[in-house]
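Write out a sequence, fold above all:
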Amino acid sequence: TTDFREYTTIVVPYCTQDVHQGNAFDVEYEDGSVINHCGSHNVDAVLEYLYKNIRNPSHIVLTGCSAGGTALPVAYGLLHQHYNGWMGSRTQLSVLADSAVFLTPSYFLENAFALWQPWRFDERLGFNWNKYALDTNYPTELWTYIMRKHGNPRDQWGFVSHTADWVSIAYYEWMSGYHENNDDDDR
């Protein structure tokens, strides 16, 4: 049993609508909204703080819900690369993804994903973003790559999901272009 009272807690707020991976500023959408998809800069700031202030942790627990859970493979890869890179495995990582949203319908991939410029971390981890940028299996390919290249068998992974989540269903419909074909919100 892990007593989390002994752990340092760092919370990374989510406000960039890019699952913590964007590198694009002032992205204007068809409806006139302008979004700063700069989640990767926020994550880098947190990692810089972490690396400077917690130099040699024995154990790190990563957890996130929804978009926060979706970002966990990349966060895991970056932390593993830093703490367990050339010096071997000195830091154990445990991951608990709660209701992660790995939705990549073709409509989203073709019309929005590249606007985020999400390849910053993929490049740093050595993942070929261009090869999978329009592949609906992008999340699976990324997970597989992270686990093979940056994974450690002593690390622990957990996933919590749902059988029906109306928020996820609504996002999937929007990411599939459903909103452009149906103005009726009374489904």
